[in-house]
Amino acid sequence: MGAYILRRLLLIIPTLFGIMVINFSLTQFVPGGPIEQIIAQLEGSGDVFEGIAGGADAGAGGGGEEEGYLGARGLPPDFIEELEKEFGFDKPPLQRFLIMMGDYLRFDFGDSYFRSISVKDLIIEKMPVSITLGLWSTLIAYLVSIPLGIRKAVKDGSAFDTWTSGMIIVAYAIPGFLFAVLLLVLFAGGSYFQWFPLRGLTSDNWDDLSVLGKVGDYFWHITLPVVASTISSFATLTLLTKNSFLDEIKKQYVITARAKGLPERRVLYGHVFRNAMLIVIAGFPSLFVGVFFGASIIIETIFSLDGLGRLGFEAAVARDYPVIFGTLFVFGLIGLVVGILSDLMYVFVDPRIDFESRET
């Protein structure tokens, strides 16, 4: 098992390098880079854009800046050259990429172009919000889907199985952003009830609350975002649990256990559960990362939560390349490590599995 883990860890390096190469290359063809956006704001308002000086150390990231900027006609060429030098665009793309990857190997992601903060500190600051959404959504999905899937397997073909399948399929079909807006309209001060806050994870008087008050305030704020990000997770996990149980229930060892007179509950949870839950439990890391990455952008934007999803969206709009590539590097690394953790979860749940014998 140790050799398998070592091989997987070594594969992280070329895989992550390939991800960064592809995305860096694509940005070379994207118009409207950070310098063009600064020039547009300078010519549009006549004010000096905040953060130009702070971007001097950001350096390495970057996309395709055209030689003749569309909005640069009223600005002196020396000023444009100074901007290029400060942001590192005076160097060839290959050199910028190699400098960036050299810094990233030391986990030095530079500074944001338009914020007076390093990318590393920015990620650390925003990560708790996204982890909160991903963790609670995943836990709730498992707590609901596993018992429901087992019940559906036991009652396969019954009226309960039919109408619950209809409900979870409808829930899966509803777009996440539409369901989030619906929750806001219904329960957050829209046209009906004002039971939950409209935005944020804490109230303005958070520091004045007691410990229990802070706990209650936290769950009060997190309810709607978590429900909105969880709703589409039930279908896949519930049906996966049901099908896994149905496959195991039909096997010979279950028939033998029942023939011996064992109670149905012991047959299900003492014999079937371990084998049926293998793929479900082992998929926990992947499901968490899927919710963490996938739902966070829409949910955080709609509910005005200051997390990594919203940070990535704002960075893409502003062409804040150090933030874009820094978060991409971190997310890619997390995703690859989680893939290894998923395999380890398989072995933990069922030690009979031996990845060492597989060809990679």
UniProtKB/TrEMBL annotation:
Pfam families: BPD_transp_1. GO terms for cellular component: plasma membrane. The keyword Transport applies. It is found in: Cell inner membrane; Cell membrane. GO terms for biological process: microcin transport; transmembrane transport. Residues 127-346 form the ABC transmembrane type-1 domain. InterPro entries: MetI-like (IPR000515), MetI-like_sf (IPR035906). CDD domains: TM_PBP2 (cd06261). The chain crosses the membrane at residues 9-26, 129-148, 169-198, 218-241, 276-303, 323-349. The keyword Transmembrane helix applies. It comes from the Bacteria. This is Microcin C ABC transporter permease YejB.
